[in-house]
Specification:
The complex is a heterodimer of chains A (392) and B (366). Chain A has 14 helices and 16 strands. Chain A is α/β, with parallel strands linked by helices and 392 residues long. Chain B is mostly helical. A two-stranded antiparallel sheet of chain B has the order 1-2. In chain B, a hairpin with a 2-residue loop joins β1 and β2. In chain B, α2 crosses α3, α3 packs antiparallel against α11 and α13 packs across α14. Chain B starts with a helix and ends with a helix. At the A-B interface, α2, β6 and α3 of A face α1, α9 and α10 of B.
C-alpha cells in the first residue's frame, strides 16, 4: 500500500532523510519510532506529498505520490496530525465534515451525513458534535481529528504522534481504535514516541535514527536491537510487561559504565536486588548458575547480561557448575546472596576471587573476602560501597 | 438544517434588510421624500440588461489617440410608476447612485475582509493588510497631486496601483512557489509603510490639491455616478461568485496548510486565487470610494459571532451586512450638520468596536 523507496531529503544543507526504505501493507500497523529530530514527522510529510523528495520516491498502491494531485492522494491516504489548534470556533461535526473534502466537488454544499456520522460514532465523539473544537480537551480533539480522517474513507492512515497529548486511558483507546481500523484492512503508519505503546499496538516497528532506518521488524527484536540505545543515547532495559505480554522499555539514563565485572552467585529476590544495584552503578554483571525462571535470571536476561541457568528443582550438572565457576573465577569480584545456586559459586570463589558478599533472606549482607573474612552489610548502598572499596 | 439552507435564509433576510436600508436612506437628505415615492422611483430606475453590443470609443493615452472597443449594454426598464419629477431626479440621479455605490463598496470590502481573516487565520486581518489600499492611495494621490504626469483617470490609477501593490507583496513573500502566510503579512506591512512614505511626500508636494487628496484618503462616496456603479458592480459580483465557490476550500485552509493539503486542497493554488480575488474586489471598491477603513474588519467579525466560522455562510452574510453597514454609515455622513467623508464615520464606529474586541479577546481567546 505505502511504499517508500530510497527517499532522501534535506532542508538546505541539513540531510533529514537518507535513503529510507519502508513498506506498509494493508492490515498492518507499523510504528515509526526514534528520538526527537530523527525525521519521523518529515518522513510522514514526505509520504503524504507535502514535502518533495530529493531522491527516491513514495508510492501509494504503486502510483508515485509526486505525480498525484493532493485530492487523489487524500482519497487514499488520511493524515491524523498532532493535536492542532484551530483558530476559529468550528464545531466537531464541521471539522469531521471537512474530511469529506476529497470526495466532493467544490459546488456541492450538501453534507454527507452518513460517513460523518459513522466516523463520529466510531471514535465516540458523537456527543461532541455541536461543541466547538477549541473547547474540547486534548484527548477529545485528537479523537475528532481521527474521526475526520475516517470520514475521508481512506485505505491508509498516517498518524503523527497520535497519543502525544493524551492521558493514559485515551492513549490506549485511540491506539486500540487504530488497531481495529487496521484489522479491517487498512494500512497504518504511526509515529509514536512512546516505545511501550508502540511495542504493544504495532505489528512492526521501524526505528529511524539520524534520518536512516536503524532497525526494522517485530517490536521485540527492534526494541532489543543495540541501535535503539544508540539512537536514544541511553541505556535501555527491555522487559516483558506482565500484563500485556509485550516488551516494555525502561531507559536508565544515569548509568555510566564503570570498569570491573561483578559475578553474582545465587538468584532469588536478593540476587535480583544485587544485579539491579550493581548494574545501575555501571558495573558489568554476570550471574549463575541459577534455576531457570528465577527472578534474578529473568532480570539478567532482560538486561542482556551473561547468565548461566540450570534446570529448576534439579541438581546442576557438572558442565553447568563449571561454567558458573568459570564466570565467577574470571570476575573481579563475587557477590554471594545466599539464594539458589550460591553454594556452587562459593566454592569457586574460595579458590580465586578475593571478595564474597552475601544477602541473607533478602536482607543484604556483604562478606568481604580478604583471607575469607566476611563483612556483612545490610543495604544495597553498603553492598555498593563494599564492592567499590574492593575494586579500588 | 443544511449549510445551503442556512445560507439562503440568512442571505435572504440580510438582502431584505439591505433593500429596506437603501429605501430608507434614499428617503433621507436635505429634501425628504416619502418612502412609497422612493420605492416607486427606485423601481423605475431598475434596469434589466437585454442586449450587449460592442462600440468603438475614442480614448487618448497621453498624446496617443486610440479607438478601443467597449461593451455597450442595452437596458430595458420594466417599471414606470408615476413619480413627481423632482423626487424622481433626487432619488434616481442624486441619491441612488451614491447609495448603491456605497452598498457595492461595503459588499466588496466585507467580502474581502472575510476572506483575508480566514486566509491569515487571524480575526484582526482586513483587506488592506496586503497593501491593496496603500497601492490604491498611491495611484490616486499621484493622479491628484501630479495630474499631468499620470495619463489615466484617478479610478484607473487607483485600481492599477492597488493591484500592483498586492502583486508586489505577493512576489516579495513568495519563494520556490510557496507563500508562507506570516511572510506575506510582514511583506504587506513593510510595503504599506514604504508606500505610506511615498504618499506623505507626495502630499507635501501637492500644493493646492492637498485637500482633495486628503479627502480621497479618508474615503468618501461624494462623487458617485451611475457610471461608477456600472463599472464596479460586475467586477464585484463576478469575483464574489468565484470567492463563494472557494468558501469551502477556505474553511479547510483554516485547519492549517498541511492539514488542508492532506484533505486534498491544492494549497498554494487556492491561496493565490483567494489573494487575487480579494485584491481585485478590494481594488475595485477602493478605486471608486477611497480608503474606507474598518468595514472589512468589523463586519466579518460581527457576522462570525452570529453565524459561526463556516465561510459558505459567513462570506455572503458578511458581504450583505457590509453593504447595509456602509449605506447606513454614508447616510449618517451625508445627512449630518456638515457632510463628512464616510471613512470618518466607519472609523469612528469601528475603532471603539475594535477595542471592544481586543478586550473580549483576553477573556475568550478569539
Amino acid at each position: 500500500m505505502i511504499d517508500v523507496d530510497g527517499v532522501s531529503l534535506s532542508f538546505g544543507d541539513v540531510p533529514v532523510l537518507d535513503g529510507v526504505n519502508l513498506r506498509v501493507e494493508r492490515g498492518e500497523l507499523v510504528g515509526l519510532v526514534g528520538p526527537n529530530g530523527a525525521g519521523k514527522t518529515t518522513l510522514l510529510r514526505t509520504i503524504n506529498g507535502i514535502l518533495d523528495t530529493d531522491a527516491g520516491d513514495v508510492r501509494l498502491d504503486g502510483e508515485p505520490v509526486a505525480e498525484l494531485s493532493a485530492r487523489e492522494v487524500s482519497r487514499q491516504l488520511a493524515t491524523v496530525p498532532q493535536d492542532t489548534h484551530v483558530g476559529f470556533a468550528f464545531t466537531a461535526e464541521q471539522i469531521v465534515d471537512m474530511g469529506r473534502t476529497p470526495h466532493r466537488s467544490r459546488l456541492d454544499w450538501t453534507d454527507d451525513d452518513d460517513p460523518v456520522d459513522a466516523a463520529l460514532k466510531r471514535t465516540q465523539t458523537d456527543h461532541l458534535r455541536d461543541r466547538s473544537v477549541d473547547d474540547l480537551s486534548g484527548g477529545e480533539r485528537q479523537r475528532v481529528l481521527l474521526a475526520r480522517a475516517l470520514a475521508q474513507e481512506p485505505a491508509a492512515l498516517l498518524l503523527d504522534e497520535p497519543t502525544a497529548s493524551l492521558d493514559i486511558n485515551h492513549q490506549i483507546s485511540v491506539l486500540g481504535l487504530v488497531e481495529d481500523l487496521v484489522a479491517e484492512g487498512r494500512a497504518a503508519l504511526a509515529a509514536i514516541h512512546d516505545l511501550d505503546l508502540a511495542a504493544r499496538f504495532c505489528d512492526r516497528l521501524v526505528l529511524l535514527h539520524d534520518g536512516e532506518i536503524g532497525a526494522a521488524g517485530p517490536p521485540e527484536t527492534v526494541l532489543r536491537d543495540p541501535v535503539l540505545g544508540e539512537a536514544f543515547e541511553t541505556t535501555a532495559a527491555v522487559t516483558d510487561n506482565p500484563v500485556t505480554g509485550t516488551p516494555t522499555v525502561t531507559a536508565v539514563a544515569d548509568r555510566t559504565a564503570r570498569d570491573g565485572r561483578v559475578h553474582v552467585g545465587g538468584g532469588g529476590e536478593s540476587g535480583r536486588a544485587a544485579i539491579r544495584t550493581l548494574w545501575r552503578a555501571g558495573y558489568d554483571v554476570s550471574i549463575g548458575p541459577v534455576p531457570e525462571g528465577d527472578v534474578a535470571a529473568a532480570l539478567a536476561e532482560h538486561l542482556n547480561l551473561p547468565v548461566v541457568t540450570a534446570q529448576a528443582f534439579g541438581v546442576p550438572d557438572g558442565a553447568t557448575r563449571e561454567r558458573g565457576r568459570r564466570l565467577a573465577a574470571e570476575a573481579d569480584a563475587v557477590v554471594l546472596t545466599g539464594g539458589p545456586g550460591s553454594d556452587i559459586v562459593a566454592t569457586a570463589a574460595d579458590e580465586s576471587s578475593p571478595i564474597h558478599a552475601s544477602f541473607d533472606d533478602g536482607s543484604p549482607a556483604v562478606a568481604r573476602g580478604d583471607g575469607g573474612q566476611l563483612t556483612v552489610v545490610d543495604s544495597e548502598g553498603a553492598l555498593l560501597t563494599a564492592v567499590e572499596e574492593h575494586l579500588g | 438544517m443544511g449549510v445551503a439552507t442556512r445560507t439562503a435564509v440568512w442571505s435572504g433576510g440580510l438582502f431584505g434588510l439591505l433593500c429596506a436600508t437603501i429605501l430608507a436612506s434614499a428617503a433621507h437628505g436635505p429634501v425628504s421624500v416619502d418612502i412609497p415615492v422612493v420605492a416607486r422611483a427606485t423601481l423605475n430606475a431598475v434596469a434589466v440588461p437585454v442586449g450587449i453590443g460592442i462600440e468603438m470609443a475614442g480614448a487618448s493615452v497621453g498624446s496617443l489617440s486610440l479607438s478601443v472597443p467597449i461593451p455597450d449594454v442595452q437596458y430595458a426598464h420594466p417599471f414606470s410608476f408615476a413619480v413627481p419629477e423632482t423626487d424622481e431626479t433626487i432619488v434616481r440621479d442624486i441619491r441612488l447612485p451614491r447609495i448603491l455605490l456605497g452598498a457595492i463598496v461595503g459588499f466588496a470590502l466585507a467580502s474581502a475582509g472575510a476572506i483575508m481573516q480566514g486566509f491569515f487565520r487571524n480575526p484582526m486581518a482586513d483587506p488592506s493588510i496586503i497593501g491593496v489600499s496603500s497601492g490604491a492611495a498611491l495611484g490616486a494621490v499621484a493622479t491628484i497631486a501630479f495630474p499631468l504626469a499620470i495619463p489615466f483617470g484617478l479610478q484607473t490609477a487607483a485600481f492599477v496601483g492597488a493591484l500592483l501593490a498586492a502583486f508586489g507583496v505577493y512576489l516579495v513573500a513568495t519563494e520556490d512557489g510557496r507563500t508562507p502566510v506570516a511572510t506575506l503579512l510582514l511583506a504587506g506591512i513593510a510595503i504599506q509603510t514604504f508606500l505610506g512614505a511615498v504618499i506623505s511626500y507626495m502630499l507635501l508636494q501637492s500644493g493646492e490639491s492637498l485637500e482633495e487628496a486628503v479627502l480621497w484618503l479618508m474615503g468618501h462616496l461624494q462623487y458617485s455616478t451611475w457610471g461608477r456603479v456600472e463599472a464596479t458592480l460586475p467586477v464585484t459580483v463576478l469575483i464574489f461568485a468565484v470567492l463563494l465557490v472557494y468558501a469551502r476550500d477556505l474553511n479547510v485552509l483554516l485547519l492549517g496548510e498541511e492539514d488542508a493539503h492532506a484533505l486534498g486542497i491544492e494549497v498554494e493554488r487556492t491561496k493565490r486565487l483567494l489573494l487575487a480575488g480579494s485584491s481585485v474586489i478590494t481594488a475595485a471598491a477602493v478605486a471608486v470610494a477611497g480608503v474606507i477603513g474598518f468595514v472589512g474588519l468589523i463586519v466579518p467579525h460581527m457576522m462570525r459571532l452570529v453565524v459561526g466560522p463556516d465561510h459558505r455562510i459567513l462570506l455572503p452574510t458578511s458581504a450583505l451586512a457590509g453593504a447595509t453597514f456602509l449605506v447606513l454609515a454614508d447616510t449618517v455622513a451625508r445627512t449630518g450638520p456638515a457632510e463628512v467623508p464616510v471613512g470618518i464615520v466607519t472609523a469612528a464606529v469601528g475603532a471603539p468596536f475594535f477595542l471592544f474586541l481586543l478586550r473580549r479577546r483576553e477573556v475568550h481567546a478569539l
